[in-house]
Amino acid sequence: MKAEERKDLKANALVQTLERVKTGLKEGPSRRMVVILGIFLLVVLLIVVWTIATNMSASRDSKRWEQLQAATDSEDLKELAEKSKNTVQGRAARLQIARDALQESLKNVYDGERSIMAERLGQAAREFEALAKDFKGTPILAQECLFGAAQAREALGEFDAAGTLYEDLAKRWPDSLLTRDAEANAKRLRARKDEMEKIQAELKKDDSK
After folding, report:
1. Is the dihedral of CA 176, 136, 94, 186 positive or negative?
2. Which CATH number fits the domain 73-208, given the four candidates 1.25.40, 1.10.600, 2.40.50, 2.60.40?
3. How far is it, in rounded angstroms, from Cα 182 to Cα 168?
């Protein structure tokens, strides 16, 4: 093939390519290209939304931790627990409320305010039991909640319920530091149940006078 013929062929190929490009521009992008571009834009949008949501969530978490740290009394804790029910910080606030209620009630349950303290013990027991489920992924806190619930039930004279909670803790976490105390308490309740029930009955009589 002569050089002039090759030159003509190349020119014709170039003209044909340019014609195809021109035709493509007139016809617009293909359906496949539109789909690919749509998917790409959707992925970009999802990444942007996820980034914004992550940053907002981190900011809210940080603010809740600050509120928990700054809480100075039960009212502050209750406010945080109410506003942040299903968050780690909200559960931590509920746990601290239950701790405080248990400690105060155990100190004063045999004083003149026995009825008030008994009510608070009941509330603490129910809160601890609920939190034991909420903290099932955090064993050390779940154990504390079961132990606290058992102590509250025992102070209320609900010895069977208390023993069950102590035994549940010991069974689920046999190597826990609390297990030894839980087992000892369960054993004590079984051995002295009749005696302790008599004491509770006497206390109730005194309350009714």
Report:
1. negative
2. 1.25.40
3. 9
Asked if 74 contacts 97 with a C-beta cutoff of 8 angstroms, the reply is yes
pLDDT for position 125: 96
* Residue 199 tokens, joined: 């004491």
Domain coordinates in residue numbering, the chain: 73-208
* Residue whose entry in the numeric block shows the structure tokens 């701790």: 99
Note the pTM of the prediction, 2 decimals: 0.64
Encode the chain in three state secondary structure. CCHHHHHHHHHHHHHHHHHHHHHHHHHCCCHHHHHHHHHHHHHHHHHHHHHHHHHHHHHHHHHHHHHHHHCCCHHHHHHHHHHCCCCHHHHHHHHHHHHHHHHHHHHHCCCCCHHHHHHHHHHHHHHHHHHHHHCCCCHHHHHHHHHHHHHHHHHCCCHHHHHHHHHHHHHHCCCCHHHHHHHHHHHHHHHHHHHHHHHHHHHHHHHHC
Ordered mean pLDDT values, 10 residues apiece, the chain (209 residues): 54 58 54 63 60 51 58 74 80 88 84 78 95 92 95 92 95 93 93 78 63
